[in-house]
Specification:
heterodimer, A: Rossmann fold, Rossmann fold, six-stranded mixed sheet, 17 helices, about 25% strand, B: ABC transporter involved in vitamin B12 uptake, BtuC, about 0% strand
């Protein structure tokens, strides 16, 4: 907090309006960031945060409004102009050329050359090394992007901006893909940068990170400016209420679990990934009726392959999967769903929905073969849309129209469609893999409640998540997965962030 | 012994000669596809280039002017492809197919207008020269019809093609322009966000590929033979496309693949000349069969540029 220079306004955006056709994405939003300040831009998905920052970075042109950089009014027509004004942006989806090296990615567009445009990569590596040691961002300039962890790739993105002389750095959802340890590291990097007089704008919808790192916070909702607050002066609850526009509860109200007999039993399961390497390697677990078992772990420790094997989408190389009394190790997905195990897959757009189909059609993807939805291979539209309307009412899917295509829905409502479909199947076991990824606070609340309701009706729920907070709030028991194995099993009551975090990193209890 | 040596020299020589018209469009293919734009119109561009090259060389009696105009003819079709695919985000395969029809149609249409209704040009007075010819012959450095003569006494286009491979490799991997071009083909959004003009680079790459395909056509019509006719270019553009894929989108790889295809042609001619008892029509299918075999065997293992064929949309308005 000490590094802010209040006499120097690095960025002022005044009454910025951005329209796409008739749609107003930003409606007179103002934002001020001082030199050396960490400023959070808070809002739900679709609130217009990224649009506003794209205006600052020259990717979009504001329809109306003024932008001043260091007090000077500027017109930022494209990213080159933004870069010249010392603005750098790290996008949520990294913009890195995968087969290129770190150094190549950093200098791309501003390459050191000898003569006639011949590259001087030795000079490039030297400059990258210099920058990375100066700001404490360790990366190997010669490594290829495709071989780097997500955290390292993010450091490359930050270096890219610094290499271009960025004084104002925009970070779009920087922690969405990081592990807890990487998040800590990132916060350290941000502090280093502000000490050097850089200004940082963080786009986020994660409240505790704002509390941890930001000095000031601008809140927008549905494209409209709501408030600008000093982070110290408000609580997370205040921030959430301002962002969503109503009171939000973080803790999921739930009673003590009453676990029954074993619903799903996995013994010594081994599963290979696409490269033929064992991603799941000797995994065993028991899931009981009436409980939520959370699987915590860093991305890439075999979670995806575990879910695929459980649902019959990927063959098990060894081991046994028992659903109640039935061995489903080599059953097909259709048989498994028929045996009352359903899944909310981690990639809802790839596995969960047919984006071009409408809501009602997506709702019957697993049951279309049976009456009342079809008879003798002929679909009954009347029944399908009646069921669609019913689900839309019951699960509060918006907009309330069964004939809209799935791709026109927001992420939260897409997830509601999937939950509606899977829960309507009345499964004994529900697998929820990353069910809240990319959703905003309100939708997360909804998903968590749905999982708890499922548990309370006596069913078994397996929750797989990279978000430790989510596991800690929702699960009754926590299993930690590391390199394809369960390396720790704790009761939610005895688990805390440090203990589970240590296990997630492969450390023993 | 000398007979065998000369046989080998003959095969190498014809391989070089027949590879050359493939190398130009294959390198053109590498350049455009590395920028992210598929160009299956290479065949039509070659066809049009072959005609324009022969026609200009016939009327001006200057093979080099013909060669240049062939390149420009190909480049003009390249420009069309660029307008369709880069500016208007047209489906790249469809535009390429249209270019193939257009190239053939334009060549034959103009040919009928200019050459009294014939779908072929008259014989050009001067072909592309043999630049090293002065070294070969009686009383010179190497005897005529000897090993060196059979291998190295080749049309200038052969040497230009090999130089082109070197230059294109250097530009792609050692210059700023090449790095930007590869970045655009892998991740146009990244390049765009760094202020690199995806638009300009792709226009440049597609037009260049047309230019090179046109040169490849002329390398056929005014070097390998001395006139254009309507079956002169029959699948060469597609074979070049296959060579580029087989060569993993790299100039050196494409060169190797072109040499293999050219070698099949060389072998065909050699066996024909030696009177091997295989019907010549069957022998003539050798390069095509090889294309299919190689593509089936190899294409699964090569990695195309990530953004190839995808429409790039800046997302603004």
């Amino acid at each position: 907090m000490t590094s802010i220079d209040f006499s120097h306004k690095a960025v002022e955006m005044i009454d910025v309006v951005k329209k796409f056709g008739d749609f107003v994405a930003n409606d007179r939003i103002s934002l001020t960031v001082h030199r050396g300040e960490v400023h959070a831009l808070l809002g739900e998905n679709g609130a217009g945060k990224t649009t506003l920052m794209n205006c600052l970075y020259g990717l979009y042109h504001p329809t109306e409004g003024t932008i001043r950089i260091n007090g000077e009014p500027v017109r930022i027509s494209d990213p080159n102009v933004a870069i010249r004004h010392g603005i750098g942006m790290v996008h949520q989806h990294f913009k890195l050329v995968e087969p290129f090296t770190v150094a190549e990615n950093i200098v791309l567009g501003r390459e050191p050359v000898r003569f006639m445009g011949i590259l001087d990569m030795a000079e490039a590596r030297r400059r990258v090394g210099e920058l990375s040691s100066r700001y404490g961002l360790s990366v190997d300039p010669q490594a290829r992007i495709e071989d780097l962890s997500v955290g390292s790739q993010q450091r490359v993105e930050i270096l890219k901006a610094l290499y271009r002389g960025a004084e104002i750095l925009i970070l779009d959802e920087p922690t969405a893909v990081l592990t807890p340890a990487e998040i800590k590291e990132l916060i350290g990097i941000i502090r280093n940068l502000t000490k050097e007089g850089k200004s940082i704008i963080i786009i986020t919808h994660k409240l505790h990170e704002i509390k941890q790192v930001a000095d000031y916070c601008t809140i927008i909702r549905r494209g409209v400016f709501i408030d600008r607050v000093a982070v110290d002066a408000v609580s997370e609850h205040d921030l959430a209420a301002k962002m969503v526009g109503r009171e939000v509860s973080f803790s999921v109200p739930k009673t003590e679990a009453e676990p029954g007999r074993v619903a799903l039993s996995v013994r010594d399961l081994a599963v290979k990934d696409n490269r033929g390497i064992f991603a799941v390697d000797g995994l065993s677990l028991d899931l009981h009726y009436g409980e939520i078992l959370g699987i915590a772990g860093v991305d890439g420790n075999g979670q995806s392959q575990l879910v695929e094997a459980l649902m019959g989408l990927r063959p098990a190389a060894a081991g046994r999967i028992m659903l109640g009394e039935r061995d489903i190790t080599s059953a097909s997905p259709r048989e498994i769903i028929g045996d009352h195990m359903s899944a909310i897959h981690e990639d809802r757009q790839k596995r969960g929905l047919v984006l071009e189909f409408d809501v009602a059609e997506n709702l019957i993807l697993e049951t279309y073969r049976r009456p009342p939805f079809s008879r003798c291979g002929v679909l009954s539209h009347q029944e399908i849309y009646r069921f669609g309307e019913h689900c839309i009412d019951t699960f509060d899917i918006r907009p309330q129209q069964a004939t809209l295509t799935a791709k026109s829905l927001s992420g939260g409502n897409q997830q509601k469609v999937i939950i509606a479909r899977e829960v309507s199947n009345n499964p004994d076991v529900l697998i929820a893999s990353q069910p809240t990824r990319g959703l905003d606070v309100g939708a997360i609340e909804y998903v968590h409640q749905a999982l708890v309701e499922q548990r309370d009706s006596g069913k078994a729920v397996l929750l797989i998540s990279f978000e430790l907070d989510e596991i800690l709030t929702v699960a009754d028991r926590i299993a930690v997965i590391f390199e394809g194995r369960i390396i720790g099993l704790l009761d939610a009551s005895e688990a805390d962030e440090n203990r589970v975090g240590l296990l997630m990193a492969g450390g023993g209890p | 012994m000398e007979g065998l040596l000369n046989d080998i020299a003959f095969i190498i020589g014809t391989t070089l000669m027949y590879s050359t018209p493939l190398i130009f469009p294959a390198i053109g293919g590498v350049i455009t596809e590395r920028s992210g734009i598929i160009n299956i119109g290479l065949e039509g561009m070659m066809y049009f280039g072959a005609f324009v090259g022969a026609a200009v060389a016939y009327f001006t009696q200057d093979p080099w002017l013909g060669f240049l105009c062939a390149g420009l003819a190909g480049a003009s079709l390249g420009l069309l492809h660029a307008i369709a695919t880069v500016s208007f985000s047209a489906e790249q395969i469809v535009s390429g197919i249209a270019i193939n029809f257009l190239g053939v149609g334009l060549a034959l249409f103009i040919s009928r207008l200019v050459f009294d209704g014939a779908t072929q040009t008259l014989t050009v007075p001067n072909k592309i020269p043999l630049p090293l010819d002065f070294l070969f012959g009686d009383g010179r450095l190497f005897p005529s019809a000897g090993f060196m003569d059979l291998v190295f006494n080749r049309f200038a286009t052969v040497y230009i093609a090999f130089a082109l491979v070197l230059v294109s490799w250097f530009v792609l991997y050692r210059t700023r322009l090449g790095m930007r071009l590869r970045a655009v083909g892998e991740h146009p959004e990244a390049a765009d966000s760094l202020g690199i003009s995806v638009f300009k680079i792709r226009y440049g790459a597609v037009i260049t590929s047309g230019f090179l395909a046109g040169l490849g056509g002329a390398a056929m019509s005014i070097a390998v033979v001395s006139r254009f006719n309507n079956t002169l270019i029959s699948g060469h553009g597609f074979i070049a496309l296959a060579a580029m894929i087989f060569g993993k989108w790299k100039p050196q790889g494409a060169l190797l693949a072109c040499l293999i295809f050219g070698g099949a042609k060389g072998l065909e001619i050699f066996m024909g000349a030696k009177g091997v008892p295989i019907p010549s029509s069957l022998l003539a299918t050798l390069p095509y069969i090889l294309t299919i075999v190689i593509l089936i065997g190899w294409v699964g293992r090569s990695q195309p540029p990530a953004a190839i064929g995808k429409i790039f949309d800046k997302g603004e308005d």
